[in-house]
Amino acid sequence: MTRRNGTERPYDIVLFGATGFVGTLTAEYLAAHAPENCRWAIAGRDRGRLERLRERLTALNPGCAVLPVLQADSADPDSLRALAESARVVASTVGPYLWYGEGLVAACAEAGTDYADLCGEAEFLDRMYLHHDVRARETGARLVHACGFDAVPSDLGAYLTVQRLPQDVPLRVDAFVRSNALFSGGTLASVMTVMSRGRQLLHAARERRLYEPRQVDRRARGSLGAPHFSPETGYWALPLPTLDAQVVARSAAALPRYGPDFRYRYFAGVKTLPVALGGSAAAGVGVALAQLPPVRSWLTRRFESGSGPDLERRRASSFSLRLVGTGGGHRVFTEVSGGDPGYDESAKMLAESALSLALDELPDTAGQVTTAVAMGDALLGRLRAAGLGFRIVDARELDPGA
Prior knowledge:
This protein is α/β, with parallel strands linked by helices and 402 residues long. The chain is built from 16 helices and 15 strands. The longest helix is centred in the C-terminal third of the chain and has 19 residues, at 341-359.
């Protein structure tokens, strides 16, 4: 492995897609929190919009008056190559990633540049592993997807939970998420893309399993689970078919601390059975409608990409993720909590992930890796300092006669 993203590059971090809804929030976070010695820049297609964003950032931090502005386009491989070669880390908010993301991943893998994104599209992660993991390992690039609400709370929440459970025994972690947040146009476009591509998603997952190294003496699974009542949390549990469980399982496969046999399940936690049943029905209707191109087109026009909840609505939004870990006769309760999950907190998570990749002493990893594997304790510490709650609520030994 040869890491080529040394300090000789002009920028520590380049934020690509900076003028989008979450991109702007991420840029504002960096303007407020990046250390003075961090050399960062904003990038996108439209120089005029980028310059207007720089003016907005300068009002938050006068030092941003000289913030570099870089032009690059997802449809222009040469511009993406130049972008990747200019930075130690590139953070991307440009989605849906299936349509717009691969060129930048390829450029970073080739240039030995660390890459982070907000992708929640399982098919994209599988295809990027198949197409670019090998090259990234050769150049030393760390390709870290899902650095937002998908799937940092799950990944680092499970990571924290496992530290308090016994070693070298089978472990089980169930997670229950609750939130009152709204979505943006860009998120809707990504969700509709994922829901309309069930066959392609399954094909990519099967192909990845053929090439991914198999564990000989260890097992790590991300299971969907079934609807049920959780006495530990008091919630009805509705399985969530997001990529969170897959991400956590890949962290577990890479890190021996998760034990010889690890399983993670991810649920929406709802307080009453009628709400759980209604949620299941709504999800089924959503999947069915996503198969109809006219419906997808109408919805994406109705909620234009680049739009999202206003500041007042985001300030009223929050999330909590409760994790129940068991193994070796012990049980651990962990809680991850924060504000608006899909936008303010996702921007914070992406920005801190990029800062961690650029500035922290990290494990020597390369290729497609998870946040827990690539950054682990360093990112956990950053997010706690940034105001996200990661805490052990209770840890106890189970009564053998219970």
